[in-house]
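seq as requested:
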Amino acid sequence: MAGDDESRRDDHPDSGSDTDPDASATEVHRTSSTGSAPGSDAADAGDGATAVHPTAAASAAGNAGEGATAVHPTAASATPPADTETDSEADADADTPPDGIPQASRETMGGAAGTQRHDVPPGQTPGPWQPGPPAGPGTPAAPWAAAAGAPGTGGPGPWGTAAFPGPGGPGYPPPGQGPGGPYGYTGPFGPPPGTGAPGAGAPGPRRKGLLIGVAVAVVVLLLATTVVLLVTRRSPPSETLAATVADVRGWEGATYRGRLPDAGGAPANLEITVDREGNAAGTVTRDGGGRAEFVLAGREQAIRGDRAWWERDAPRPELAARLTDQWLSDAFTVLPRGLTSWEQPPNALADRLAAADVGEQEEVVVGGRDARVLTPGTDGRRVTVVDGEPPTLVEVDLPGFGQGRTTPVTVDRAAPAALATVADLARQAPTMKSYIVAITERPRLALTVEGGENTCRTPTCTVTVRLVNSGTIATTGTIIVTLNDVEVARHPFSSAPGSNLAFPTTANNPVYDQPGASISALWRARVEGGR
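struct tokens:
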């Protein structure tokens, strides 16, 4: 058939085309009736011949010679006269494909290089798309080769009028796989135009999971941001003070701490707990040493100081031992001045804090926490709180509160143990000994010398000194014994109320070495201290 190329050109005159006869390829359409025998046309095509695009005989592409390229029929070639045949002749440059076509494309274009493919829309470069499984006898080689109207077809194809089967038909991949096989399309050009990427369409499980995860993360972030804004939102000073006052009114007691001078003017630390009834108990600790506990219950004021406390505050030095660790009422003279101004139960404190007009000053740090300073009214009150639900009252500076103090007053909700101590001491206060009595009373001591004679003729002279305490206070001291006004013994003692103590005493007879000599014995005893 190659020898008849010239005669075949004459049989098909040019219809207005200006195409150079030396062009690299001449586009030819050969059609046959749907009843043509398979391979009757394509079998005659030699190497480099242009493959025919029959409409119905799909097997022709399977019988094409080496290098034949299967091409889609066009609308113009779908129904030409049954017996019309057209061949093409490549010119001398037919072996050189057009510039710009990759090597991979050259190997997959089929037929003579440069032959126009009808399965590629105008203006697009063919790509090395991976073909599907080989077509069996009588099966179309490609989805678009199915006859129009054949069972399972999906209507006209994307590049012509020929029909193509729908999913599940011949030439389509098995269910679950995209076009191009289980691994998608190969080559640098991706899938055919219009078909979309493999797996395109409804999102898969992984993509749905990712979208759900992102949505959940966004919701969580929004919720967290909302919570942070709500927590960190600073309420107006008036609202903060009102919430603080309401919280304080619900306390069972308050504990106050501050700095103030003691009764003698020495700087000291004060801690006092006040219950809802106004009873109070606490401690005063001097910087220079000495610690005293106290209780305020109604009109009762009692104190119990350690030895260091009384060594400084006792009216007479000899009383320090008597007063040490003794609960003594009526001790207002040795308690810090203005101590009763600290007796503020929770309700009274809340009343002192409340105000309609509330300002605010710069933040301060109290106990390592950032705190707000509120200024109720115009009388110089300062209320320091830490934001929270409810706000925490940490410090107050109220006119008349804590007379004599040198620092603001720190405030805490009273601990249960501190409130229990207040209640216990408040019950005992009325029975405690008066401080005034303790420093003015004297021990009732009776000292006698028992035994011995007015004369002593033995090598030693012996007597017994007895001390009886009939008073109500304990005392200590020393008994000094003399014989004829010469001190012969010292007896330290500690006498409790009602005690009866005996101290045997022996002295040498100074004239015993003289036979028959005797002395007059005058024994005396006295107490030092113990008053």
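The longest strand covers residues 460-469.
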